[in-house]
Each structure stands twice: as structure tokens, then as C-alpha cells.
Amino acid sequence: MHALVGENGAGKSTLMKILYGMLRPDEGTIAIEGHPAALHSPGDAIARGVGMVHQHFMLADYLTVLENIVLGAEKLHGIGAKARARVREISDAYGLRVRPDVLVEDLGVADRQRVEILKVLYRGARILILDEPTAVLVPQEVEALFDNLRDLKAEGLTVIFISHKLGEVLSVADDITVIRRGTTVASVVPAETTARHLAELMVGSELPSPQTRESTVTDIEMLRVRSLRLTATDVDGVDRAVLDGIDLTIHKGEILGIAGVEGNGQAELVEAIMGMRDPDSGQLTLGGQDISHAPTRARRESGIGYIPEDRHRHALLLDAPLWENRILGHVTEPPNSRGHFLDPGAARRDTERIVTEYDVRTPGIEVTAASLSGGNQQKLIVGREMSHLPRLLIAAHPTRGVDVGAQAQIWDQIRTARSEGLAVLLISADLDELIGLSDTLRVMYRGRLVADADPATITPQELGSAMTGAATGHLEHPTDAPGEGR
To answer: Which residues form the ABC transporter domain (predicted)?
Structure first.
């Protein structure tokens, strides 16, 4: 199990794409099991036993899980009963809990990741490349994944994984390679280094902390959600409640954190607040104004900022230049428009400002969003949303897949805006981030808010346990006195 770490833009994903045959190197050699390997395509890599699970998944939304797994590998087990049996066999063997007949577009991020891993194993990979494999998992799921990876290793497979979670790297890797700006700067073993040392090797600074110490919570309500209910039709054609009796209030200057395993209603809650789904019943008010059935644009113009959980699907036009991406979601607002007309010149100038203020590493604003690393794409999105001085920010996994330096910058921006009165709904799979940033914590399970916790006393392990439905009500460390707020 070999870990590769480095800041965003260091070249980690580029290197892995070379090893998977997606990119051709200008020079140098690759050897697999001691033999030189010329990898001209992913097909060549797969034939040599190399499989890759990308940070941004490579799945066809409109196909089922089974169809995605079989696609391109029809010669292995056909497309019928034999293929289905093999998928179930691998899924059961590694605890992946994959449902073959579900459309991929109906899956959450964690389920998509499991499909990608199964797809690679289905093709017989002996070298498994994982790009940010734990970004969407709670602690219990992370440990289960690592147990699976250890089993794979015990069977003779090699695992190469990229991660920004340095504690996890130290706990599971046999060797660690650190790269900076496209060059190897260190090779270390976990027993001889620390997370702090790795962070310094990566970005030349200490490991950041999400800790928010001073309270800025006011008694002014910004978002109020009452008795919110939303139903959706499942794969069997049955209507079921994906949100049921949701009640929450976020005040000016408050960060409300929502903890929950992916697929328990967090995405639907965000979509209901943004106006992307119309609730069956209940009320939403923003600053005292009823927005329960207002269109998304009206909500945007009323002061809602939005950092989506999947930046490629919901936040960026990958083939468009950075300045056009700066306009997305804010077409009718200055500086992007004047009256009824777009103002490309002003949008370009403001994009230059965002690039500078948010340290977006790019050769210019005319390059496409796809040409940026994941962390720099995220900084552009955060800069865009914060530039409109929102009253409410919905931040869904705001630091997913970004390095420690970019993570610290994003945390600082959220903390600064919070101190100036911003209300934040924070959804994150990073429990340290949730506990460190939040003023108030709620736990979501099967479409309901089932528990609350004081961030000052709760531990990631206790929070992770509640996320699996093991605890409800007010969560409190048994040895601690009641928290006094933040």
C-alpha cells in the first residue's frame, strides 16, 4: 500500500493518469512486475492489471450499476446472468453493498465510489490506483475500506492511493511518496514521520486546524425550516419520504453542521433549500421572507450562496474559461451583468480579482476550468460564491479533495464571513471539519434530524456512531460537563 501525497497541482493525478494510460509521458520509463510497459491507453493499462478509481468518477449516469460495470468488459462474463452473478460475488466478498439495477444518477457519491471500485475489481486489476478514496466516508466506513484494502494486499494486490488526509495515510500506508510541483521531494515510511512533517514537506507549512473558538452567533434568524417533507419515487416505483419533518434554524453568524452518512437526505435538503426540489409540505423562510416555492434564481438573488458537493456536475462548466464559470449562478447580478445584458469585461476583471485573492493557481482566466487541479477549481467556486456577499451559504463538502493549504484558506474565508454575520449550513464527511467549524451540530439519518451535539464536547467517533443510527437525542460525552456553546 503506497501513498502519494502533495498539494493541489503538484502532479499527483497527472502521474496516476500516466500510469493508467490516459496521458503519454514525454520521457522516462514505467515497469510493471519488472518488465517495461508502454501504456498508450487505459485498455493497455487494464490488460497489464492496472485499474484506477478517479477522484471524479467516470460513470454514465443514465445506465444502471450493472451496465456501468460491464461496459467495455463484455467479453469477460457477457452482459447477462453470469455478469450479474460475478458482480454480486465481488460485491459480497468486499462488503461493497452494490445494487446492480439502480441507475447511477440516483446514487450518492459514496455509492458511486463503491461502484467504481467494483468496476476495477471486475476487470481483474492487480494494481489498484485510488484517488482520494476516503473523501466521502465516515470513520467507520473508512476503517471498513482499509480492511478491504488490507485483504486485497494480503492476496497479492498492490494499492496506490492519493489522499490529503494525512492521519489516514500514516495509519494504513507501507510507504509514502511526497511530490511538489511535479517532482518527488521525499520518500518516507509512516513509522519515521508525522502528519505535521508531511504537511511541511507538501506545502512548507504546518497542518491547519478547522477550530473555531470565539462565538459570533446572534439571535437574528436567517434561515428557518419548519416541518419540511419531501417524497421521491424509488426504483420500485414506490413513493417514499426522503425528508420527513425537518425543523432547523440558522442565525446570523452561526455555522450549523449536518452530519450523516451519504444518502440519508442531505443532498435532498440542500436541493429543497436551493429550490431545485419543491417540497410536499413545510415552510422555508430566509430573513423572514417565505421562499418555500420561490424559483432558484430568486433565492440566489435573495442572498443564498452555494458550494455544491460535486463541483464537476453542479458547479462548473469544465470546457468553459474561468471567467465564464465566474458568471454561473449569478447571471443577473453585478458585476456579471448591467440591466438585461451580460458584461463580459467586468466579469473578466472580477475573475482576475478572485484568482488573486483566493490564490487560484492558473496561467490565466481564459483557460478552461478542466485544466485546473481539483483544489484550484474549488477555490474558484468558493471565491465566486463569497464575492456576492451572501446572507446564507450552503457549503456541501467545501474542502473535499483539496490539500492542506487550500483547506486552510477555505476555512479562513468561511470563518471570516461568519464573523461578519454570514449564516452557514455546513454538510461534510470530514468529521473534524464539522466539529471544528460548527457552532451547532445536527445528525441526519434516513431523512430525519435524529440527534444534536455540542461541538465542544463531541468526538468524531461518537458523531460517526450517531450517523449510523446508533444514538439519538442530545449527544454528550459521558465524562464531560455540559458544553457552554461556542
So the answer is: 1-206, 223-471
pLDDT of residue 131: 84
Closest CA to 347 of 331, 364, 368: 331
Residues 435 and 441: beta-carbon distance below 8 Å: yes
306-329 pLDDT, tens digit each = 999 889 889 999 999 999 999 999
Could you give the CA distance from residue 145 to residue 165 in angstroms, rounded to a whole number? 14
Tell me the three-class secondary structure of the chain, residue by residue: CEEEECCCCCCHHHHHHHHCCCCCCCCCCCEECCEECCCCCHHHHHHCCEEEECCCCCCCCCCEHHHHHHCCCHHHHCCCHHHHHHHHHHHHHCCCCCCCCCEHHHCCHHHHHHHHHHHHHHCCCCEEEEECCCCCCCHHHHHHHHHHHHHHHHCCCEEEEECCCHHHHHHHCCEEEEEECCEEEEEECHHHCCHHHHHHHHHCCCCCCCCCCCCCCCCCEEEEEEEEEEEEECCCCCEEEEEEEEEEEEECCCEEEEECCCCCCHHHHHHHHHCCCCCCEEEEEECCEECCCCCHHHHHHCCEEEECCCHHHHCCCCCCEHHHHHHCCCCCCCCCEECCEECHHHHHHHHHHHHHHCCCCCCCCCCEHHHCCHHHHHHHHHHHHHCCCCCEEEEECCCCCCCHHHHHHHHHHHHHHHHCCCEEEEECCCHHHHHHHCCEEEEEECCEEEEEECCCCCCHHHHHHHHCCCCCEEECCCCCCCCCCC
Higher-confidence residue: 329 or 133?
A: 329
Domains, the chain, ranges and CATH?
2-203 (3.40.50.300), 221-475 (3.40.50.300)
Contact 89, 81 (CB under 8 A): no
Residue with cell 478552461: 368
| Paired strand residues for 453 | 441, 475
CA angle centred on 308, ends 306 and 313, rounded to 5°:
130
Residues 432, 437: Cα–Cα separation, whole Å = 8
